From TrEMBL, chain A:
Pfam families: C6_DPF (PF10170). It comes from Phoxinus phoxinus. InterPro entries: CDPF1, CDPF1_dom. This is Cysteine-rich DPF motif domain-containing protein 1. Transmembrane segments: none annotated.
From TrEMBL, chain B:
It comes from Phoxinus phoxinus (Eurasian minnow). It holds the Pfam family HA2_C. Transmembrane segments: none annotated. InterPro entries: DEAD-box_helicase_OB_fold, DEAD/DEAH_box_helicase_dom, DHX34_Znf-C2H2, HA2_WH, Helicase-assoc_dom, Helicase_ATP-bd, Helicase_C-like, P-loop_NTPase. SMART domains: DEXDc, HA2, HELICc. Residues 746-759 have a biased composition (Low complexity). Residues 58-83, 741-770, 1092-1123 are annotated as: Disordered. This is DEAH (Asp-Glu-Ala-His) box polypeptide 34. Residues 58-73 have a biased composition (Basic and acidic residues). Coiled coil: none annotated. The keyword Plastid does not apply. Residues 365-533 form the Helicase C-terminal domain. It comes from the Eukaryota. Residues 169-329 form the Helicase ATP-binding domain.
Length: 116, 1152
């Protein structure tokens, strides 16, 4: 039961939203997941919300452009063949397909209305 | 291509066979998701949705996307960096996971393989489809879990205490004691332990006043620290622990930490101790603080954190040499306070029922002022159960009329299922009206409350040392409680608090509630202090010292109980009792019972008397329940009824498993209490074992189980564990929605499952279908067959064993005895009156078997003569031994057993005083027994003294061996007490209890009589009689009693000290007597007779030393000169200096 306990490599902290959590693996291969490979180098841990032992949860990774450590939360980054932090996405918004652009724009407006 | 298409046509995604083939590809034994698991099922459900979604999307088509992306391309040229992103959007690019299945593809690519599968197997397209769905499924799961994490972190951040995280950690690092004060909702209980854990502190213990809080906090904190399925965070309470070696943060009760200090005074296993809710001022908590305060100088590395509401903080800080205080604002929404004092015409005197009008006005007011769409429930605080049912009735009538309220009571004597209803949700447009005791002030937190009605009253238990009685009395609450109640309205939004008293009343309230240590009996506390070596309790530095008188009362009580000796030191039984986490009386029963080999029944009785009664009050007036209960009743008393009930329940559990639930309901029993009993029983057994009071059964009947049986049991256990886990996972599922008529069925049909409301029945059936988690836990924890054996054993106790058990109960409960009033036989059943030593006119609690059947307590009419000197004489007088005396509206005794008066008193009483011929006995200064048959009286007394001496000797021998710390299972067959001796003692005691044929009168001494009872000290005590008594009790030295007068023979027996006593050797007391064992026949005084009886035993009992003693009177020089007197023997015609015994022996010489 406690195999994963105490095996934290360090603490992952998102540079944008400050979400933090201990991580227990870094890389493209979550432990004991057989055929699963990640398409980026990720910080991850055992999925704390799943009773089964071998389930993993990706916390975040580095932005492929600015190298900032960001979480996978939709307010901080998105994945489109590579990881991009949202500031970088905004900087290069035109290079992203329409679906992504709409998504990011929608987010902006939601944030605006909720903050006002 | 055409080939492929052909195949897809024959491919059917809905066919289980087709799915199974893909399972073989993606969900094999060692894959991330395995066939058969829940996730696997979830995948296929997801798959269907995914396919539908895809199909819909294909239908609508994506016309504009290409155009747009062309546009994007055009713009890209002006940008600086080329990100090299694919031009055509595909959801697949948004997923950072891939599933590598090269091996399978190769397998399918192989021509041979292909041919084999051609007709039915999945083709490339199917595999691709399935993989894509799988990727989306995995991504979806990742998102879900991550959202949980981010929501959790957001919530943590938004707690008021979050701002103080670093400050708290810093303070704890630099100070031995820190006080964290914060109001409800600031998050201290869940966050502070986590902050410390995260900043590197290990081995943290956090105490809670309530068991339930330990469990729920451990669960919450382990979830928040992302360790829900690990054991980094655990709890430990009386019967349960989730602690493992990996546990770093442990939630536990205050009492349990105190027990641990008893074992390990330095508490070396902890680095940080957090004492939560110190402001509640529970007895254990106050004591714990005192103990920790004296521990701190010895453990400079230990860190102590006190957590409190923002009440009286200075008190705690200054108690720990001005420890730093960190005050955290709470998170309460604004609450409007409305004072609505009850008009005088609606106020009631003590005896009347509460007037519901002020309460109904509040309900009406809410209905008028707030539209039903605006949600928000009402919480109403009343002082007690009776008040609750009065108001509930009135509110229910109003609710039935308006259809806008569901009325629910909440107090601790309700069944757990009923208590649980307050957490359910009301349907739209309907509000819950929860009518509660102060249980909802701190113990139970209900969300969604918007309105609070505060009666300003509370019922609190206090101890009356004069009457030796608990008392449940109504008081005004304190300002602190009042604020606490108000706060309950502002947890989830702005609220309103209606106070049914004036603001001036509020100002006149005490600031804080009276701490428990000032209200309750301190016996257990003092006993524990003594055993911890904390010195004189009167000089111990409590945070708020209890009155000296209440310490004195406790010391006296413990002395009466035999836990302290005459010098106020712990006796050997007291040392043992201090180790047992139970009431002194219960502990005594356990110890005494195991000495008599009555372990199984006494365990059951002790457990039953330590938990709340399983008999539901609501079922009391239900004739069906009474009838069903009838076979369980024992007219010997409530402990026996409880034992029967427990045994019968165990049988049902063994034979029919979870059918016991129904069995209990039919009898109006709260099954939860029976589960508690069985757990407690097991704990008691462990305690007896570790204290060497239990023979190790495991060794003696190690029936080798065959492998198949063992395997079977193992599989069953695994299954049970799985069930338990599943249940735990489901526990957070949504709450039920209440029905409008919910409040109605509460009292009427909850206990019976007769015709009841059909809706009620439906609800029950639904609950029956869910896993009976208690049953699962029960099966995991206990070996049903073993229990069944034990139950069988104690179900058919012989009358001999039953008497012994009763004696054990009686000695355990002593001095808690009550005497029936002499006129009870002529009174109605409901008007039976009893008297204890300190309280007159108590009544039997209506739940007792004696309330139903009081006649068994009466002296049979034909047996007691009503006239002349024999008035009131009988050999059937009985007393009640009781567990609790509690005054509510009347003083009630509950959990009673009936005992034969004379016999039991002589065997257990602390003080037995007699006149010269022992025809008059006074026990404990309040019960007078008159025996007209002098010879009979003497015989009874003499055998009682002998039996008691032997009982004490054997008890001491066994306690001496198996005292605390002894790990060797020194059982009852130890060398000091032989089996034969024990059996002989039991035989003697039983014969004494059952077959003592002596008639006597029994009465209570009036106040004046008990004041002028004793002769008082005499100036010229007759020392010769002292020496003569010495022979009655080998090893004891009778001395003139300095207070009562007469002779103090042993700690509990004083001879000839009663005022009517005559001269000891007065000739007129002599009467002819023949000894059954030797040829002696001569006129003797009662005293001389007793002496002879002791020295003249049947040959087989005589001890060798006695025989070796020289017979000759003249050689006797052993006796101290002061105890001899000059005796003139007429036959020898000589003056001899002899002790009384020697005189007797000398006389005997001449006779033979
Ligand atoms: Zn982030
Ligand atoms: Zn970036």
């Amino acid at each position: 039961m406690d195999l994963s306990e105490g095996s934290a490599l360090g603490v992952f902290t998102c540079e944008l939203c400050e979400l933090s959590s201990p991580y227990s693996f870094y890389g493209q291969k979550p432990p004991n997941t057989r055929a699963i490979v990640l398409l980026e180098e990720c910080y991850g841990m055992r999925d704390p919300f799943c009773p089964e032992r071998e389930k993993f949860l990706v916390l975040g990774s580095k932005c492929s452009l600015c190298c900032k450590t960001v979480c996978v939360g939709t307010d901080c980054s998105l994945f489109y063949t590579k990881r991009f932090c949202l500031p970088c996405v905004r900087d290069h918004l035109h290079q992203f397909p329409e679906q992504v652009q709409n998504e990011v724009q929608r987010k902006k407006s939601v944030q605006k209305t909720s903050s006002s | 291509m055409s080939h492929e298409r052909e195949k897809s046509q024959s491919w059917d995604w809905d066919s289980p066979q087709c799915r199974a083939q893909l399972d073989e590809v993606f969900f094999r034994q060692h894959d991330y998701i395995q066939t058969g698991r829940t996730e696997h099922k979830e995948f296929w459900t997801f798959f269907e949705r995914f396919q539908r979604f895809k199909a819909k999307k294909e239908m609508s088509g994506s016309k504009s996307s290409r155009q747009e992306s062309d546009e994007g391309k055009a713009r890209k040229k002006s940008g600086s960096v080329d990100l090299g992103l694919p031009k055509d959007y595909d959801a697949r690019y948004r997923i950072n996971i891939s599933v590598c299945s090269k091996d399978i593809e190769e397998r399918l690519g192989g021509s041979e393989h292909r041919r084999r599968r051609e007709s039915s197997g999945p083709g490339r397209q199917e595999i691709t489809d399935c993989r894509l769905a799988l990727l989306h499924f995995l991504d979806f799961n990742q998102k879900q879990s991550f959202n949980k994490l981010s929501k959790l972190r957001r919530e943590q951040k938004s707690l008021p205490i979050f701002q103080y995280r670093d400050r708290i950690v810093e303070l704890v690092r630099t100070h031995p004691v820190v006080v964290v004060a914060g109001d409800t909702g600031c998050g201290k209980s869940t966050q502070v332990p986590q902050y410390l854990l995260a900043s590197g502190f290990d081995n943290i213990a956090c105490t809670q006043p309530r068991r339930i809080a330990c469990i729920s906090l451990a669960k919450r904190v382990s979830f928040e620290s992302l360790n829900l399925y690990g054991s980094k965070v655990g709890y430990q309470i009386r019967f349960e622990t989730s602690r493992t070696t990996a546990t770093k943060l442990l939630f536990m009760t205050e009492g349990l930490l105190l027990r641990q200090i008893q074992q390990d005074a330095s508490l070396g296993q902890y680095q940080v101790l957090i004492v939560d809710e110190v402001h509640e001022r529970h007895l254990h908590c106050d004591f714990l603080l005192g103990v920790l305060r004296s521990l701190l100088p010895l453990r400079t590395d230990l860190r102590l954190v006190l957590m409190s509401a923002t009440i009286n903080i200075k008190l705690f800080s200054s108690y720990f040499s001005d420890a730093p205080v960190l005050q955290v604002p709470g998170r309460l929404f604004p609450i409007q306070v409305i004072y609505q004092p009850i008009p005088s015409e609606e106020q009631v005197s003590r005896s009347e029922k509460l007037d519901p009008r002020p309460y109904l006005r509040v309900l009406q007011g809410i209905d008028q002022r707030y539209p039903p769409e605006e949600r928000g429930d009402l919480l109403l605080f009343l002082s007690g159960v009776a008040e609750i049912s009065t108001i509930q009735e009135a509110c229910q009538a109003y609710a039935t009329h308006t259809q806008r309220w569901i009325v629910l009571p909440l107090h601790s004597t309700l069944s757990l299922a009923q208590q649980d209803k307050v957490f359910d949700i009301s349907p739209p447009g309907v509000r819950k009206c929860i009518i509660s005791t102060n249980i909802a002030e701190t113990s139970v937190t209900i969300d969604g409350v918007r309105f609070v009605v505060d009666s300003g009253k509370v019922k609190e238990m206090s101890f009356d040392p004069k009457a030796k009685m608990q008392r449940l009395q109504e008081f005004w609450i304190s300002r602190a409680s009042s604020e606490q109640r108000k706060g309950r309205a502002g947890r989830t939004g702005p609220g309103v608090c209606y106070r049914l008293y004036a603001e001036s009343d509020y100002d006149a309230f005490a600031s804080y509630p009276v701490p428990e240590i000032h209200r309750v009996a301190l016996d257990s506390l003092i006993l524990q202090m003594m055993s911890m070596g904390l010195g004189d309790p009167r000089t111990f530095t409590f945070i708020d010292p209890p009155p000296a008188s209440s310490i004195q009362t406790a010391v006296t009580y413990l002395r009466e109980q035999g836990a302290l000796d005459e010098h106020g030191e712990l006796s050997s039984i007291g040392r043992l009792l201090a180790q047992l986490p139970v009431d002194v009386v219960i502990g005594k029963m356990l110890v005494l019972g195991s000495v008599f080999k009555l372990v199984e029944p006494v365990l059951t009785v002790a457990a039953a008397l330590s938990v709340q009664s399983p008999f539901l009050r609501s079922a009391q007036h239900n004739p069906d329940c009474s009838t069903a209960r009838q076979p369980l009743n024992s007219n010997q008393g409530d402990p026996f009824t409880l034992m029967n009930t427990f045994n019968a329940w165990v049988q049902v559990k063994a034979e029919r498993g979870s059918a016991s639930r129904k069995w209990c309901r039919r009898r109006g029993l709260e099954e939860q209490r029976l589960y508690e009993m069985v757990n407690l029983r097991r704990q008691f057994k462990e305690l007896l074992r570790t204290h060497g009071l239990l023979e190790d059964h495991a060794a003696s009947r190690a029936v080798p189980q065959d492998r198949a049986r063992r395997r079977e049991r193992l599989t069953e256990r695994q299954k049970l564990h799985q069930l338990k886990r599943d249940h735990e996972l489901q526990e957070n599922t949504k709450r039920k929605v209440l029905r409008l008529e919910e409040g109605l069925e509460g009292d009427a049909s909850s206990a019976s499952d007769g015709e009841g409301a059909s809706s009620g029945k439906k609800r029950k059936d639904a609950s029956e279908q869910t896993v009976d988690i208690q049953e699962v836990k029960f099966k995991l924890r206990h070996n049903v067959n073993e229990l069944q054996e034990a139950a069988c054993a104690s179900a058919d106790l012989s009358s001999r064993q039953q008497s012994l058990l009763k004696l054990v109960l009686c000695r355990g409960l002593y001095p808690q005895l009550a005497m029936p009033d002499e006129h009870n036989a002529t009174r109605k059943d409901s008007e039976q009156v009893f008297h204890t030593r300190n309280k007159q006119g108590v009544v039997i609690h209506p739940t007792s078997v004696f309330a139903i059947d009081p006649e068994v307590l009466h002296v049979p009419e034909h047996e007691s003569s009503e006239f002349g000197a024999d008035k009131g004489q009988s050999n059937r007088h009985q007393l009640l031994a009781f567990v609790t005396l509690l005054e509510t509206n009347k003083p009630y005794v509950s959990n009673c057993a009936r005992i034969p008066a004379l016999q039991a008193l002589l065997l257990v009483a602390n003080s037995v005083d007699t006149n010269v011929d022992c025809s008059r006995l006074v026990v404990d200064g309040w019960l007078e027994l008159g025996l007209t048959d002098g010879a009979g009286a003497m015989k009874v007394l003499s055998s009682a003294l002998t039996l008691r001496g032997e009982w004490e000797r054997q008890l001491q021998a066994q306690l001496g061996q198996g005292g605390p710390g002894s790990s060797a299972g020194l059982g009852l067959s130890g060398p000091k007490v032989s089996r034969r001796e024990l059996e002989k003692l039991c035989e003697g005691l039983v014969r004494f209890l059952l077959y003592t044929e002596v008639s006597y009168s029994l009465r209570r001494l009036a106040g004046l009589q008990s004041q002028n009872l004793y002769i008082g000290p005499q100036k010229d005590p007759d020392l010769s009689s002292a020496s003569s008594l010495g022979s009655l009790f080998p090893g004891m030295k009778p001395e003139p009693d300095a207070i009562k007068g007469g002779l103090r023979v042993c700690s509990y027996f004083t001879y000839n000290c009663l005022r009517d006593s005559k001269d000891l050797y007065s000739e007129c007391l002599r009467s002819f007597w023949s000894c059954p064992h030797c040829d002696l026949y001569m006129p003797l005084t009662p005293l001389e007779r007793m002496q002879h009886e002791v020295s003249c035993r049947p040959p087989e009992e005589q001890q060798p030393e006695e025989e070796a003693e020289p017979e000759s009177v003249n050689t006797s020089s052993s006796s101290s000169s002061g105890l001899t007197r000059v005796y003139h023997c007429d036959i020898c015609d000589k003056d001899l200096t002899l002790t009384s015994t020697e005189i007797l022996k000398h006389k005997r010489q001449h006779l033979s």
